[in-house]
Amino acid sequence: MKDNTIICRCSDLTQGDIRELIAKGYRTFDELKRISRIGMGPCQGRTCMQLVLRELSIATGKPISELAPGTFRPPVKSIKLGEILEAIEEGGEEAHG
Amino acid sequence: MVKTADVVIIGGGISGVAIAYNLAKKGIKDVVVIEKNYLASGATGRCGAGIRQQWGTEMNCRMSKYSCEAFETLKEDLDYDGDIEFKQGGYLIISSTEKEHEQFKKNIALQNSLGIQSKLLTLDEAKEVVPFLNTDGLISATFHQKDGHLNPFHTTQAYAEAAKRLGAQIHTFTEVTDIIVENGKIKGVKTNRGDIATNVVVNAAGGYSQLIGNMVGLELPVFSERHQILVTEAVEPILDPMVMSFSLNLYCQQVPHGGFIMGRGDEGEPRDLRITSGWHFVEEMTKTITRVLPPLKNVRFLRQWAGLYNITPDRQPIYGPVDEVEGFYLAIGFSGHGFMLAPATGIVIAESIIGEKTTLPIDMLHINRFKEGNLIFEPSVV
Ligand SMILES: Cc1cc2nc3c(=O)[nH]c(=O)nc-3n(C[C@H](O)[C@H](O)[C@H](O)COP(=O)(O)OP(=O)(O)OC[C@H]3O[C@@H](n4cnc5c(N)ncnc54)[C@H](O)[C@@H]3O)c2cc1C
Ligand code: FES
Protein backbone atom coordinates (compact mmCIF):
# COMPACT_ATOMS: atom_id res chain seq x y z
CA MET A 1 0.00 0.00 0.00
CA LYS A 2 1.17 3.51 -0.79
CA ASP A 3 1.28 6.21 1.85
CA ASN A 4 -1.73 8.06 0.50
CA THR A 5 -3.97 4.99 0.55
CA ILE A 6 -7.14 5.89 2.44
CA ILE A 7 -7.40 3.87 5.65
CA CYS A 8 -10.49 5.51 7.13
CA ARG A 9 -13.06 6.45 4.52
CA CYS A 10 -15.45 8.01 7.00
CA SER A 11 -12.95 10.43 8.52
CA ASP A 12 -10.74 10.77 5.44
CA LEU A 13 -7.39 9.60 6.81
CA THR A 14 -4.58 8.03 4.85
CA GLN A 15 -2.00 5.47 5.78
CA GLY A 16 0.53 8.32 5.75
CA ASP A 17 -1.53 10.29 8.29
CA ILE A 18 -1.69 7.31 10.62
CA ARG A 19 2.01 6.48 10.26
CA GLU A 20 2.85 10.09 11.06
CA LEU A 21 0.76 9.98 14.25
CA ILE A 22 2.27 6.67 15.29
CA ALA A 23 5.72 8.20 14.73
CA LYS A 24 4.66 11.07 17.02
CA GLY A 25 4.23 8.55 19.81
CA TYR A 26 0.54 7.54 19.84
CA ARG A 27 0.52 3.87 20.66
CA THR A 28 -3.09 2.73 21.06
CA PHE A 29 -6.17 2.75 18.86
CA ASP A 30 -8.06 4.92 21.37
CA GLU A 31 -5.35 7.59 21.33
CA LEU A 32 -5.25 7.67 17.54
CA LYS A 33 -9.02 7.87 17.47
CA ARG A 34 -9.25 10.84 19.80
CA ILE A 35 -6.52 12.83 18.12
CA SER A 36 -7.53 12.13 14.49
CA ARG A 37 -11.20 10.99 14.58
CA ILE A 38 -10.21 7.72 12.93
CA GLY A 39 -12.88 5.14 13.69
CA MET A 40 -15.39 7.81 14.74
CA GLY A 41 -17.31 7.90 11.46
CA PRO A 42 -20.70 6.44 10.58
CA CYS A 43 -19.24 2.92 10.35
CA GLN A 44 -17.73 3.31 13.83
CA GLY A 45 -14.41 1.80 12.83
CA ARG A 46 -15.75 -1.42 11.40
CA THR A 47 -13.87 -0.72 8.16
CA CYS A 48 -10.69 0.87 9.46
CA MET A 49 -9.94 -0.54 12.89
CA GLN A 50 -8.19 -3.67 11.62
CA LEU A 51 -6.05 -1.59 9.26
CA VAL A 52 -5.01 0.71 12.09
CA LEU A 53 -4.24 -2.21 14.38
CA ARG A 54 -2.05 -3.62 11.61
CA GLU A 55 -0.11 -0.34 11.44
CA LEU A 56 0.26 -0.34 15.23
CA SER A 57 1.42 -3.92 15.14
CA ILE A 58 4.11 -3.11 12.60
CA ALA A 59 5.26 -0.08 14.61
CA THR A 60 5.29 -1.73 18.03
CA GLY A 61 6.34 -5.24 16.97
CA LYS A 62 3.43 -6.66 18.97
CA PRO A 63 1.00 -9.12 17.37
CA ILE A 64 -2.50 -7.71 16.72
CA SER A 65 -3.97 -10.10 19.28
CA GLU A 66 -1.98 -8.29 22.02
CA LEU A 67 -3.12 -4.79 21.02
CA ALA A 68 -6.17 -3.26 22.67
CA PRO A 69 -8.89 -2.67 20.10
CA GLY A 70 -10.89 0.55 20.32
CA THR A 71 -13.52 0.75 23.01
CA PHE A 72 -16.82 -0.38 21.57
CA ARG A 73 -19.43 2.35 21.87
CA PRO A 74 -23.04 1.31 21.33
CA PRO A 75 -25.23 1.42 19.19
CA VAL A 76 -24.32 -1.05 16.48
CA LYS A 77 -26.33 0.64 13.76
CA SER A 78 -26.97 4.35 13.63
CA ILE A 79 -30.57 5.42 14.13
CA LYS A 80 -32.28 8.81 13.97
CA LEU A 81 -33.20 10.50 17.25
CA GLY A 82 -36.76 10.78 15.87
CA GLU A 83 -36.88 6.99 15.51
CA ILE A 84 -35.75 6.53 19.09
CA LEU A 85 -38.49 8.95 20.13
CA GLU A 86 -41.14 6.98 18.21
CA ALA A 87 -39.99 3.75 19.81
CA ILE A 88 -40.25 5.31 23.28
CA GLU A 89 -43.74 6.65 22.55
CA GLU A 90 -44.96 3.31 21.18
CA GLY A 91 -43.48 1.52 24.18
CA GLY A 92 -45.33 3.97 26.43
CA GLU A 93 -48.70 3.33 24.74
CA GLU A 94 -48.32 -0.40 25.09
CA ALA A 95 -47.64 0.00 28.75
CA HIS A 96 -50.88 1.94 29.15
CA GLY A 97 -52.94 -0.05 26.71
CA MET B 1 11.95 5.85 35.07
CA VAL B 2 13.24 8.93 36.86
CA LYS B 3 14.39 8.50 40.46
CA THR B 4 13.89 12.04 41.75
CA ALA B 5 11.73 15.04 40.88
CA ASP B 6 11.07 18.55 42.15
CA VAL B 7 7.35 18.08 41.62
CA VAL B 8 5.32 14.95 40.80
CA ILE B 9 1.88 15.61 39.31
CA ILE B 10 -0.55 12.70 39.51
CA GLY B 11 -2.89 12.73 36.50
CA GLY B 12 -2.37 13.46 32.80
CA GLY B 13 -5.67 15.21 32.20
CA ILE B 14 -6.00 18.87 31.26
CA SER B 15 -5.28 19.98 34.85
CA GLY B 16 -2.09 17.95 35.25
CA VAL B 17 -0.55 19.05 31.96
CA ALA B 18 -1.55 22.72 32.46
CA ILE B 19 0.11 22.71 35.89
CA ALA B 20 3.22 21.00 34.47
CA TYR B 21 3.48 23.58 31.70
CA ASN B 22 3.20 26.51 34.10
CA LEU B 23 5.76 25.06 36.54
CA ALA B 24 8.22 24.36 33.73
CA LYS B 25 7.67 27.83 32.31
CA LYS B 26 8.50 29.32 35.69
CA GLY B 27 11.81 27.49 35.61
CA ILE B 28 11.13 24.44 37.80
CA LYS B 29 13.41 21.84 36.25
CA ASP B 30 12.26 18.37 37.22
CA VAL B 31 8.52 18.32 36.77
CA VAL B 32 7.12 14.82 36.28
CA VAL B 33 3.54 13.97 35.27
CA ILE B 34 2.40 10.42 36.00
CA GLU B 35 -0.64 9.14 34.08
CA LYS B 36 -1.94 5.62 34.56
CA ASN B 37 -3.42 5.40 31.08
CA TYR B 38 -2.82 7.81 28.17
CA LEU B 39 -3.16 11.61 28.17
CA ALA B 40 -6.77 12.83 28.44
CA SER B 41 -8.01 9.29 29.04
CA GLY B 42 -9.97 10.48 32.11
CA ALA B 43 -12.76 13.06 32.25
CA THR B 44 -10.88 15.44 29.94
CA GLY B 45 -11.15 13.23 26.86
CA ARG B 46 -14.77 12.39 27.69
CA CYS B 47 -16.13 15.86 28.32
CA GLY B 48 -18.59 18.03 26.43
CA ALA B 49 -15.86 20.42 25.21
CA GLY B 50 -17.88 23.43 26.36
CA ILE B 51 -16.33 26.71 27.49
CA ARG B 52 -18.47 29.28 29.26
CA GLN B 53 -18.13 32.36 31.45
CA GLN B 54 -21.80 32.46 32.47
CA TRP B 55 -21.46 31.31 36.08
CA GLY B 56 -23.27 32.05 39.31
CA THR B 57 -20.34 32.49 41.73
CA GLU B 58 -17.65 35.13 41.65
CA MET B 59 -14.79 32.63 41.61
CA ASN B 60 -16.21 30.47 38.79
CA CYS B 61 -16.80 33.66 36.76
CA ARG B 62 -13.32 35.02 37.37
CA MET B 63 -11.53 31.75 36.67
CA SER B 64 -13.52 30.99 33.54
CA LYS B 65 -13.05 34.52 32.22
CA TYR B 66 -9.30 34.34 32.79
CA SER B 67 -9.21 30.93 31.09
CA CYS B 68 -11.39 31.85 28.15
CA GLU B 69 -9.17 34.83 27.40
CA ALA B 70 -6.16 32.51 27.58
CA PHE B 71 -7.77 30.15 25.04
CA GLU B 72 -7.96 33.00 22.53
CA THR B 73 -4.16 32.95 22.13
CA LEU B 74 -3.38 29.46 23.46
CA LYS B 75 -2.44 27.88 20.16
CA GLU B 76 0.24 30.53 19.60
CA ASP B 77 1.33 30.69 23.24
CA LEU B 78 1.88 26.93 23.32
CA ASP B 79 3.25 26.90 19.76
CA TYR B 80 1.02 23.95 18.85
CA ASP B 81 1.01 22.73 15.26
CA GLY B 82 -2.41 21.06 15.48
CA ASP B 83 -5.83 22.71 15.76
CA ILE B 84 -7.35 23.20 19.22
CA GLU B 85 -10.70 23.98 17.53
CA PHE B 86 -11.54 27.02 19.63
CA LYS B 87 -14.85 28.41 18.45
CA GLN B 88 -16.74 31.21 20.19
CA GLY B 89 -20.27 30.47 19.04
CA GLY B 90 -21.69 31.48 22.42
CA TYR B 91 -23.79 29.71 25.04
CA LEU B 92 -27.55 30.16 25.04
CA ILE B 93 -28.84 29.21 28.49
CA ILE B 94 -32.63 28.84 28.69
CA SER B 95 -34.91 29.07 31.73
CA SER B 96 -38.14 27.17 32.22
CA THR B 97 -39.19 28.21 35.74
CA GLU B 98 -39.77 31.59 37.43
CA LYS B 99 -37.20 30.72 40.06
CA GLU B 100 -34.62 30.05 37.39
CA HIS B 101 -35.47 33.28 35.61
CA GLU B 102 -34.86 35.15 38.89
CA GLN B 103 -31.52 33.36 39.25
CA PHE B 104 -30.61 34.40 35.70
CA LYS B 105 -31.09 38.06 36.63
CA LYS B 106 -28.70 37.64 39.56
CA ASN B 107 -26.19 35.73 37.43
CA ILE B 108 -26.18 38.38 34.72
CA ALA B 109 -25.70 41.17 37.28
CA LEU B 110 -22.77 39.29 38.81
CA GLN B 111 -21.23 38.43 35.43
CA ASN B 112 -21.57 42.00 34.13
CA SER B 113 -19.99 43.38 37.34
CA LEU B 114 -16.96 41.19 36.60
CA GLY B 115 -16.65 42.33 32.99
CA ILE B 116 -18.44 39.39 31.36
CA GLN B 117 -20.76 40.84 28.72
CA SER B 118 -23.60 38.35 28.96
CA LYS B 119 -27.20 39.44 28.33
CA LEU B 120 -30.66 38.47 29.49
CA LEU B 121 -32.81 37.70 26.43
CA THR B 122 -36.54 37.49 25.81
CA LEU B 123 -37.72 34.36 24.01
CA ASP B 124 -38.03 36.32 20.76
CA GLU B 125 -34.42 37.40 21.11
CA ALA B 126 -33.43 33.83 21.89
CA LYS B 127 -35.05 32.74 18.63
CA GLU B 128 -32.85 35.19 16.79
CA VAL B 129 -29.86 33.26 18.12
CA VAL B 130 -31.35 29.81 17.45
CA PRO B 131 -34.28 30.18 15.00
CA PHE B 132 -35.58 26.62 15.49
CA LEU B 133 -35.58 26.79 19.29
CA ASN B 134 -38.95 25.54 20.59
CA THR B 135 -39.83 28.14 23.22
CA ASP B 136 -42.93 26.35 24.56
CA GLY B 137 -42.65 26.22 28.32
CA LEU B 138 -39.59 28.47 28.38
CA ILE B 139 -39.41 31.84 30.13
CA SER B 140 -36.18 33.57 29.18
CA ALA B 141 -32.59 33.00 28.18
CA THR B 142 -29.12 34.37 28.72
CA PHE B 143 -26.46 34.62 26.05
CA HIS B 144 -22.74 35.31 25.94
CA GLN B 145 -21.00 35.32 22.59
CA LYS B 146 -17.51 34.59 23.90
CA ASP B 147 -18.47 31.19 25.31
CA GLY B 148 -18.10 28.18 23.04
CA HIS B 149 -16.10 25.10 22.14
CA LEU B 150 -12.54 23.81 22.52
CA ASN B 151 -11.14 20.39 21.58
CA PRO B 152 -10.12 18.60 24.80
CA PHE B 153 -7.70 16.09 23.33
CA HIS B 154 -5.79 18.61 21.23
CA THR B 155 -5.67 21.16 24.05
CA THR B 156 -4.23 18.54 26.41
CA GLN B 157 -1.72 17.58 23.75
CA ALA B 158 -0.80 21.23 23.18
CA TYR B 159 -0.04 21.78 26.89
CA ALA B 160 1.79 18.46 27.14
CA GLU B 161 4.05 19.11 24.18
CA ALA B 162 4.84 22.65 25.37
CA ALA B 163 5.62 21.34 28.88
CA LYS B 164 7.95 18.70 27.44
CA ARG B 165 9.81 21.27 25.35
CA LEU B 166 10.44 23.17 28.58
CA GLY B 167 11.90 20.05 30.19
CA ALA B 168 8.92 18.46 31.96
CA GLN B 169 8.62 14.68 31.73
CA ILE B 170 5.36 12.87 31.11
CA HIS B 171 5.10 9.18 31.89
CA THR B 172 1.96 7.56 30.51
CA PHE B 173 0.78 4.01 31.28
CA THR B 174 2.32 4.44 34.75
CA GLU B 175 0.20 4.29 37.90
CA VAL B 176 0.89 5.88 41.27
CA THR B 177 0.22 3.14 43.80
CA ASP B 178 1.21 4.95 47.01
CA ILE B 179 2.62 8.18 48.41
CA ILE B 180 5.43 8.23 50.95
CA VAL B 181 4.90 10.63 53.87
CA GLU B 182 7.37 11.03 56.76
CA ASN B 183 6.73 13.29 59.76
CA GLY B 184 3.89 15.00 57.95
CA LYS B 185 5.99 15.73 54.87
CA ILE B 186 5.82 14.33 51.33
CA LYS B 187 8.91 12.23 50.57
CA GLY B 188 8.02 10.46 47.34
CA VAL B 189 5.60 8.40 45.29
CA LYS B 190 5.53 4.71 44.46
CA THR B 191 4.50 3.67 40.98
CA ASN B 192 4.11 0.33 39.23
CA ARG B 193 7.33 1.22 37.41
CA GLY B 194 9.47 2.31 40.35
CA ASP B 195 9.68 4.93 43.11
CA ILE B 196 10.33 8.66 42.68
CA ALA B 197 11.72 10.76 45.54
CA THR B 198 10.08 14.20 45.74
CA ASN B 199 8.97 16.81 48.27
CA VAL B 200 5.97 17.99 46.30
CA VAL B 201 3.02 16.01 44.97
CA VAL B 202 0.05 17.51 43.11
CA ASN B 203 -3.19 15.57 43.18
CA ALA B 204 -4.72 16.20 39.73
CA ALA B 205 -6.30 12.76 39.50
CA GLY B 206 -9.82 13.87 38.52
CA GLY B 207 -12.42 11.25 39.41
CA TYR B 208 -9.83 9.29 41.38
CA SER B 209 -8.63 12.21 43.52
CA GLN B 210 -10.18 10.82 46.71
CA LEU B 211 -8.13 7.62 46.30
CA ILE B 212 -4.96 9.72 46.01
CA GLY B 213 -6.08 11.59 49.16
CA ASN B 214 -6.38 8.26 50.99
CA MET B 215 -2.73 7.55 50.12
CA VAL B 216 -1.68 10.39 52.43
CA GLY B 217 -4.34 9.57 55.02
CA LEU B 218 -6.87 12.25 54.05
CA GLU B 219 -10.61 11.94 53.46
CA LEU B 220 -11.16 14.60 50.80
CA PRO B 221 -14.63 16.23 50.65
CA VAL B 222 -15.33 15.06 47.08
CA PHE B 223 -17.20 12.23 45.42
CA SER B 224 -17.26 10.98 41.84
CA GLU B 225 -20.42 10.55 39.82
CA ARG B 226 -20.88 9.09 36.37
CA HIS B 227 -22.14 11.48 33.69
CA GLN B 228 -23.23 10.28 30.28
CA ILE B 229 -22.95 11.93 26.92
CA LEU B 230 -23.64 11.11 23.29
CA VAL B 231 -22.71 12.30 19.83
CA THR B 232 -24.60 12.22 16.54
CA GLU B 233 -23.37 11.87 13.00
CA ALA B 234 -21.82 14.96 11.42
CA VAL B 235 -24.23 17.16 9.46
CA GLU B 236 -24.11 20.65 7.90
CA PRO B 237 -23.63 23.41 10.50
CA ILE B 238 -27.05 24.58 11.78
CA LEU B 239 -26.41 25.37 15.46
CA ASP B 240 -23.84 27.98 16.50
CA PRO B 241 -24.07 28.19 20.28
CA MET B 242 -24.16 25.58 23.01
CA VAL B 243 -27.77 25.33 24.22
CA MET B 244 -28.03 24.61 27.92
CA SER B 245 -30.71 24.38 30.59
CA PHE B 246 -30.30 23.65 34.28
CA SER B 247 -34.00 23.05 34.99
CA LEU B 248 -34.52 20.89 31.88
CA ASN B 249 -31.18 19.24 32.59
CA LEU B 250 -29.44 19.36 29.24
CA TYR B 251 -26.60 20.75 27.20
CA CYS B 252 -26.09 20.35 23.46
CA GLN B 253 -23.70 21.82 20.93
CA GLN B 254 -22.72 21.16 17.35
CA VAL B 255 -18.96 20.74 17.38
CA PRO B 256 -16.78 21.98 14.50
CA HIS B 257 -16.65 18.60 12.73
CA GLY B 258 -20.46 18.66 12.50
CA GLY B 259 -21.68 16.19 15.12
CA PHE B 260 -23.98 17.21 17.98
CA ILE B 261 -22.59 16.44 21.43
CA MET B 262 -25.18 16.36 24.21
CA GLY B 263 -25.46 15.34 27.82
CA ARG B 264 -27.56 15.53 30.97
CA GLY B 265 -27.25 14.56 34.60
CA ASP B 266 -29.26 11.95 36.47
CA GLU B 267 -29.89 11.73 40.20
CA GLY B 268 -29.57 7.97 40.02
CA GLU B 269 -26.08 7.88 38.49
CA PRO B 270 -23.66 5.49 40.21
CA ARG B 271 -20.93 6.94 42.43
CA ASP B 272 -18.64 3.90 42.41
CA LEU B 273 -16.25 4.95 39.60
CA ARG B 274 -18.24 3.01 37.00
CA ILE B 275 -18.17 4.55 33.51
CA THR B 276 -20.32 2.13 31.53
CA SER B 277 -23.08 3.59 29.31
CA GLY B 278 -26.81 2.92 29.53
CA TRP B 279 -29.82 3.09 27.19
CA HIS B 280 -32.01 4.89 29.72
CA PHE B 281 -29.79 7.95 29.27
CA VAL B 282 -30.21 7.85 25.49
CA GLU B 283 -34.02 7.79 25.84
CA GLU B 284 -34.14 10.62 28.36
CA MET B 285 -31.67 12.68 26.33
CA THR B 286 -33.64 12.11 23.12
CA LYS B 287 -36.94 13.13 24.71
CA THR B 288 -35.53 16.36 26.13
CA ILE B 289 -33.44 17.49 23.20
CA THR B 290 -35.97 16.81 20.44
CA ARG B 291 -38.51 18.92 22.35
CA VAL B 292 -36.19 21.91 22.67
CA LEU B 293 -34.43 21.55 19.30
CA PRO B 294 -36.93 19.69 17.05
CA PRO B 295 -34.76 19.48 13.88
CA LEU B 296 -32.47 17.13 15.79
CA LYS B 297 -35.08 14.41 15.23
CA ASN B 298 -33.52 13.98 11.81
CA VAL B 299 -29.95 13.42 12.97
CA ARG B 300 -28.54 9.98 13.58
CA PHE B 301 -27.32 8.92 17.00
CA LEU B 302 -23.79 7.59 16.61
CA ARG B 303 -21.99 6.85 19.83
CA GLN B 304 -22.30 7.24 23.58
CA TRP B 305 -19.87 7.16 26.48
CA ALA B 306 -19.52 8.33 30.07
CA GLY B 307 -17.01 9.94 32.39
CA LEU B 308 -16.65 10.99 36.01
CA TYR B 309 -17.53 14.34 37.55
CA ASN B 310 -15.43 14.85 40.70
CA ILE B 311 -17.87 16.83 42.81
CA THR B 312 -17.52 19.13 45.83
CA PRO B 313 -20.41 20.23 48.08
CA ASP B 314 -20.37 23.79 46.64
CA ARG B 315 -19.60 22.78 43.03
CA GLN B 316 -16.38 24.82 42.98
CA PRO B 317 -12.90 23.26 42.71
CA ILE B 318 -10.46 22.76 45.56
CA TYR B 319 -7.10 24.46 44.97
CA GLY B 320 -3.86 24.63 46.93
CA PRO B 321 -2.00 22.99 49.84
CA VAL B 322 -3.45 21.12 52.84
CA ASP B 323 -2.63 21.72 56.51
CA GLU B 324 -2.01 18.06 57.38
CA VAL B 325 0.69 17.10 54.86
CA GLU B 326 3.47 19.46 53.80
CA GLY B 327 4.09 19.38 50.05
CA PHE B 328 0.68 17.95 49.08
CA TYR B 329 -1.33 20.15 46.69
CA LEU B 330 -4.85 19.76 45.34
CA ALA B 331 -6.35 20.64 41.95
CA ILE B 332 -9.54 18.60 42.24
CA GLY B 333 -13.32 18.69 42.58
CA PHE B 334 -14.06 20.46 39.30
CA SER B 335 -17.69 19.35 39.53
CA GLY B 336 -18.17 19.03 35.77
CA HIS B 337 -16.40 22.16 34.58
CA GLY B 338 -12.68 21.61 34.96
CA PHE B 339 -11.81 21.54 31.30
CA MET B 340 -12.72 25.19 30.75
CA LEU B 341 -10.77 26.26 33.86
CA ALA B 342 -7.44 24.71 32.87
CA PRO B 343 -5.45 27.91 32.22
CA ALA B 344 -6.51 29.26 35.64
CA THR B 345 -5.77 25.91 37.32
CA GLY B 346 -2.35 25.75 35.72
CA ILE B 347 -1.21 29.20 36.72
CA VAL B 348 -2.56 29.37 40.28
CA ILE B 349 -1.34 25.92 41.30
CA ALA B 350 2.13 26.63 39.89
CA GLU B 351 2.25 29.96 41.75
CA SER B 352 0.97 28.38 44.93
CA ILE B 353 3.71 25.69 44.83
CA ILE B 354 6.46 28.21 44.14
CA GLY B 355 5.12 30.53 46.83
CA GLU B 356 4.27 33.46 44.58
CA LYS B 357 1.22 35.67 44.91
CA THR B 358 -1.45 33.97 42.83
CA THR B 359 -2.82 35.65 39.69
CA LEU B 360 -6.35 35.05 40.98
CA PRO B 361 -7.09 34.89 44.71
CA ILE B 362 -7.59 31.25 45.66
CA ASP B 363 -8.14 31.42 49.43
CA MET B 364 -11.89 31.05 48.80
CA LEU B 365 -11.15 27.76 47.05
CA HIS B 366 -8.90 26.29 49.77
CA ILE B 367 -10.01 22.98 51.28
CA ASN B 368 -10.41 24.62 54.70
CA ARG B 369 -13.62 26.29 53.49
CA PHE B 370 -15.43 23.02 54.21
CA LYS B 371 -14.17 22.94 57.82
CA GLU B 372 -15.05 26.57 58.34
CA GLY B 373 -18.41 26.07 56.69
CA ASN B 374 -18.50 29.38 54.80
CA LEU B 375 -19.56 27.99 51.48
CA ILE B 376 -20.81 29.86 48.45
CA PHE B 377 -22.83 27.49 46.27
CA GLU B 378 -22.67 27.46 42.49
CA PRO B 379 -26.30 27.28 41.34
CA SER B 380 -25.71 26.94 37.61
CA VAL B 381 -24.64 23.37 36.86
CA VAL B 382 -25.97 20.43 34.80
C1 LIG C 1 -19.72 13.76 30.47
C2 LIG C 1 -18.90 14.92 30.91
C3 LIG C 1 -19.07 16.17 30.31
C4 LIG C 1 -18.30 17.25 30.70
N1 LIG C 1 -18.43 18.45 30.05
C5 LIG C 1 -17.60 19.48 30.35
C6 LIG C 1 -17.63 20.68 29.60
O1 LIG C 1 -18.39 20.82 28.64
N2 LIG C 1 -16.78 21.68 29.95
C7 LIG C 1 -15.90 21.55 30.99
O2 LIG C 1 -15.16 22.49 31.28
N3 LIG C 1 -15.86 20.41 31.72
C8 LIG C 1 -16.67 19.38 31.41
N4 LIG C 1 -16.60 18.22 32.14
C9 LIG C 1 -15.70 18.16 33.28
C10 LIG C 1 -14.26 17.98 32.83
O3 LIG C 1 -14.17 16.87 31.98
C11 LIG C 1 -13.35 17.77 34.03
O4 LIG C 1 -13.63 18.68 35.07
C12 LIG C 1 -11.89 17.95 33.64
O5 LIG C 1 -11.60 17.23 32.47
C13 LIG C 1 -11.00 17.52 34.77
O6 LIG C 1 -9.67 17.42 34.31
P1 LIG C 1 -8.59 16.78 35.24
O7 LIG C 1 -7.31 16.85 34.50
O8 LIG C 1 -8.64 17.44 36.57
O9 LIG C 1 -9.08 15.27 35.46
P2 LIG C 1 -9.05 14.04 34.44
O10 LIG C 1 -9.14 14.46 33.04
O11 LIG C 1 -10.02 13.04 34.94
O12 LIG C 1 -7.58 13.50 34.62
C14 LIG C 1 -7.17 12.77 35.76
C15 LIG C 1 -6.21 11.73 35.29
O13 LIG C 1 -5.61 11.10 36.42
C16 LIG C 1 -5.31 9.79 36.07
N5 LIG C 1 -5.10 9.04 37.31
C17 LIG C 1 -6.01 8.78 38.28
N6 LIG C 1 -5.45 8.04 39.26
C18 LIG C 1 -4.15 7.85 38.93
C19 LIG C 1 -3.05 7.18 39.53
N7 LIG C 1 -3.18 6.54 40.69
N8 LIG C 1 -1.85 7.17 38.89
C20 LIG C 1 -1.69 7.82 37.70
N9 LIG C 1 -2.71 8.47 37.08
C21 LIG C 1 -3.92 8.49 37.68
C22 LIG C 1 -6.52 9.36 35.27
O14 LIG C 1 -6.23 8.26 34.42
C23 LIG C 1 -6.88 10.61 34.50
O15 LIG C 1 -6.36 10.61 33.18
C24 LIG C 1 -17.36 17.11 31.76
C25 LIG C 1 -17.18 15.86 32.37
C26 LIG C 1 -17.93 14.77 31.94
C27 LIG C 1 -17.70 13.45 32.58
S1 FES D 1 -13.81 3.92 7.96
FE1 FES D 1 -13.02 4.69 9.79
S2 FES D 1 -14.83 5.13 10.92
FE2 FES D 1 -15.61 4.35 9.09
UniProtKB/TrEMBL annotation, chain A:
Transmembrane segments: none
InterPro entries: BFD-like_2Fe2S-bd_dom_sf (IPR041854), Metab_Enz_Cyan_OpOx_G3PDH (IPR051691), SoxA_A3 (IPR041117)
Gene Ontology MF terms: oxidoreductase activity
UniProt superkingdom: Bacteria
The UniProt record lists the keyword Oxidoreductase: yes
Oxidoreductase in keyword set: yes
UniProt cross-references to CDD domains, sorted A to Z: GlpA-like_Fer2_BFD-like
Annotated SoxA A3 domain residues: 6-84
Species the sequence originates in: Alkaliphilus serpentinus
Entry-linked PANTHER family: ANAEROBIC GLYCEROL-3-PHOSPHATE DEHYDROGENASE SUBUNIT B
Protein name per its UniProtKB record: (2Fe-2S)-binding protein
Keywords noted in UniProt: Oxidoreductase
Automatic annotation (TrEMBL), chain B:
Oxidoreductase listed as a keyword: yes
Keywords for this protein: Oxidoreductase
Protein name: FAD-binding oxidoreductase
Domain FAD dependent oxidoreductase span(s) in chain numbering: 6-351
Gene3D superfamilies in the record: D-Amino Acid Oxidase, subunit A, domain 2, FAD/NAD(P)-binding domain
SUPFAM superfamilies tied to this protein: FAD-linked reductases, C-terminal domain, FAD/NAD(P)-binding domain
Gene Ontology molecular functions: oxidoreductase activity
Signal peptide span: none
Cellular component aspect of the GO annotation: cytoplasm
Organism of origin: Alkaliphilus serpentinus
